[in-house]
Amino acid sequence: MHVTPGASNSALPALYRTMRRIRSFEERVGELFVRGQTAGSMLHLSIGEEAAAAGVTAAMGPRDTFTTHHRGHGIFLARGADPARMMAEIAGKEAGYCRGKGGSMHIADMGLGHLGANAIVGGGIPAVVGAGLSARHHGTGAISVAFFGDGATGQGILYESMNMAALWGLPVLFVCINNQYGMGTRIDQATANTALHERALAFGLEGATVDGVDVEAVADAARTLADAARAGRPGFLAVTCYRFYGHARKDKSPYRSPEEEAEGRARDPLARARARLLETGLATEAELEALDAAADAEMDATIDFAVAAGEPPLASMFRDVFDPAEPEPEPVRARIDRVLARE
Amino acid sequence: MIELTYRDALRQALADAMTEDPDVVVLGEEVGRYGGAYGVTRDLIRDFGPDRVIDTPISEAAIVGAAVGAAMTGLRPVAELMYVDFIGMTMDQLGNQAAKIRYMFGGQTGVPMVLRTQGGTGRSAGAQHSQSLEAYVMHTPGLRLAMPATVADAYHLLRQAIACPDPVVFIEHKALYTMKETVDLAAEPPPWGRAAVRREGGDLVIVSYSRQLYHALEAARRLAERGIEATVIDLRTLNPLDFDTIRERVEAIGRAMVVSEGAMTAGVAAELSARIAEECFDFLEDPVVRVAGEDIPISVSTALEAGSVPGPELIAGTAARMLGGRA
Question: How high is the ipTM of this complex?
Answer without folding.
Answer: 0.96
